Amino acid sequence: MSKSTAKASSDTALIKYWGKKNEELRIPENDSISIVLDGLDTVTTVEFDEHFTQDEVMLDEAKIGSSSVEYKRVVKQLDRLRKKAGKNGLFAKVVSKNSFPRATGLSSSGSGMAALTFAAAKALGLELTQKELSIFSRLASGTACRCAVGGFAHWMGGDTSETSFSKTIFDKNHWDIRDVIVVVSDQKKKITSTQGHKSAQSSSLFKPRQKGINQKIKDLKKYIAEKDFKKFGELVEADCLEFHSVLLTSKPPLVLWQPGTIQVINEVQQMREEGIECYFTINTGFNVHALTLPEYEAEVKKRLERLSLVKSIILAKVGGGPKILDEHLF
Ligand code: PMV
After folding, report:
1. Whose CA is nearest to atom 4 of ligand 1?
2. Which of 34, 184, 208, 212 is the 20 to 30 A CA-CA neighbour of 17?
3. pLDDT (tens digit, 9 = 90+) per residue, 212-267?
4. Is the CB of 194 inside a 6 Å radius of any atom of ligand 1?
5. 133 and 147 Cβ atoms separated by less than 8 Å
6. How far apart are CA 195 and CA 256, in angstroms?
7. For residue 11, how far is its CA from the centre of ligand 1 (angstroms)?
């Protein structure tokens, strides 16, 4: 019997990846940069035991049925790691808890799969390098490839499994950016990112976006290095809108925003006119990340939580990579 627990944080992409060159290996069409978010966390305990007769998965207090997509995704990742450790057929119990609503566009698969990978690798006695952990995490979830490293993370898209991994380009202490995360709904989204990526190339705006991505990556790195929040925010917001334009013009169109999403966008723009520095970004979903600086955080929170369509607010800041914990969930 061997048991291990890991905590990993989700992230929000600043320059987003969309579309895959290789679906099975999750090799993205483009590089991406994100900040890993301390405040959007998953804790996962994995126990392997030769007495178990099948894998068992509990997510947020509920047992996950073996025919569900979530169960199969977890088992597939366990299989990759079991194979690497030469322990095929050794079943596991997995218990995972999120500090935030899952499947609502807050990239729970990123923190979930990074936590699973770190906990399972440790429980299996695997000694993996940071690059290997990023690659293994990527095979289970694109976002997890970045969550596996922490801080300001750059996922180098690459062309092969070996060349597609993430690096921390600036650590979590480099720049204190705050993320006021606005939950406008905690209903599960209708389209998962995995489904969405498949239709990326069907948008006439996909290729034009791709053409500009490398320049955006270069510019964003510069703005982060210089801590130029205005240029940083304008670029992040522009990439978010360009990404959602690709979604809107995909076949079939992916219209993910809800009325609350628009209400938050309008308020962020209004605050900026009043000199409160904040910028929005939205992943594949409807909940909004309002990025700001520490001096504006309280005001941004106050302004957003009083909007009629806002359900709740989560505060997050730049976080580190996954950690192994001594305390287990069971
Ligand atoms: O990693 P996935 O399959 O959940 O896709 C993530 C897609 C975006 O969040 C929209 C972009 C990104 O880079 O995280």
Report:
1. 193
2. 184
3. 999 999 999 999 999 999 999 999 999 999 999 999 999 999 999 999 999 999 99
4. yes
5. no
6. 13
7. 9
- Ligand 1 atom with minimal separation from the 141 CA: 1
CA dist., res. 89 & res. 24, Å (int): 22
For 145, the token pair is 């490839």
Distance 142 CA to ligand 1 centre (A): 6
> Which of 34, 143, 210, 289 best tests ligand 1's pocket when mutated (most atoms within 8 Å of CB)?
143
Whether the CB-CB separation of 105 and 283 falls below 8 Å is answered with yes
Q: Please identify which residue in the block is written with the tokens 């992230």.
A: 11
Q: How far apart are CA 210 and CA 55, in angstroms?
A: 40
pTM of the model: 0.96
* The residue type at 231: K
CB distance 142 to ligand 1 below 6 Å: yes
Cα distance between residue 269 and residue 287, in whole Å: 16
Query: 66 near 54, Cβ under 8 Å?
Result: yes
DSSP 8-state symbol, 161: G
Whether the CB of 143 sits within 6 Å of ligand 1: yes
Interval between CA 88 and ligand 1 midpoint (Å): 30
